[in-house]
Amino acid sequence: MTKIALVTGGTRGIGASISQKLKSSNFKVIANYASNDEAAKSFSEEFGIEVMKWDVSDHNDCKEFIDKIYEQHTSIDVLVNNAGITRDAPLHKMNLENWQKVIDVNLNSVFNMTSLVINKMRENNFGRIIHISSVNGQKGQFGQTNYAATKSALIGFSKSLALEGAIKGITSNVICPGYINTEMVSAIREDILKSIIDTIPNKRLGEAEEVAEMVDYLVSEKASYVNGSTFSINGGLWMD
Ligand code: CAA
């Protein structure tokens, strides 16, 4: 039977590559997005992937749309918690709004989404949950106390969930991408980005497809014994 994969923030950047890759591996993919209707429409038309708009930081929205998915499908087999934003500033310049927004979108969303799919996964004795963290959740980054806090939190969340789901055929794993060639990274000031790339042993940005390949493996049946792990894809920027 065709398995259903739900990818948050799945129409742009790393999420878009994950959606495409899982579709090519014969999943029925639903790509969630929050705001950019135009990008979502052209993504959906180009790749034949269903898109659904809602705010993953809003618990009621998540419930409404996940219920809709369950009206049409008996299961959500794969959840990729990919949606994330940055609001970079050193802490002495960071306001409460930019702290809270990042916590809501990057971390509270993961509670919302995962808690709403976990019971059916437990009933089905199958589930694959992937959390997209970041190298900066592992090593920290100047200007990212908010973002790094959320990205390291995903590692603790995932390991705990891995313990809870193991007996029910559910795995939970984290991928920590480094600096990937996406709009999020291109938004970094050019001179700062250049100095970051200089510190990457592989001397280049990663590609979203390189992250998607890892997701594709981790959600497969073959990966049933990979649980509670954290995978780095960062060109050697941080070895952990
Ligand atoms: N370490 C130490 N000091 C630093 C520093 C660093 N890495 N970066 C900047 N500083 C210092 C500067 O030298 C400067 O010092 P002076 O005032 O004495 O000259 C001071 O801090 C202020 O620096 P900025 O001018 O850069 O400060 P700003 O407020 O204009 O900008 C910032 C702050 C927006 C955080 C900017 O530094 C920045 O964009 N940094 C990169 C952050 C980053 O890597 N974000 C990743 C986004 S992509 C992503 O998150 C995806 C992923 O998962 C990897």
Annotate the secondary structure layout.
Blueprint: E1 4-7, H1 13-24, E2 28-33, H2 37-47, E3 50-53, H3 59-72, E4 78-81, H4 96-124, E5 127-132, H5 135-139, H6 145-165, E6 170-177, H7 183-186, H8 190-198, H9 208-218, E7 230-233
Parallel strand pairs: 1-2, 1-4, 2-3, 4-5, 5-6, 6-7
Helix pairs in contact: 1-9, 3-4, 4-6
Question: How does this structure look, described?
Answer:
By secondary structure, the protein is an alpha/beta fold. The chain has a single domain, classed as 3-Layer(aba) Sandwich (Rossmann fold). It is 48% helix and 15% strand. The protein contains nine helices and seven strands, in the order βαβαβαβαβααβαααβ. A seven-stranded parallel β-sheet has the order 3-2-1-4-5-6-7, sandwiched between helices. Strand 4, helix 4 and strand 5 (127-132) form a beta-alpha-beta unit. The longest helix is centred in the middle third of the chain and has 29 residues, at 96-124. The model has no long low-confidence stretch (mean pLDDT 97). The structure holds acetoacetyl-coenzyme A. The site of acetoacetyl-coenzyme A (CAA) has 20 residues, from helix 5, helix 7 and helix 8. Residues 86, 88-90, 93, 134-136, 141-144, 147, 179, 184-185, 188-189, 192, 196 line the site of acetoacetyl-coenzyme A.
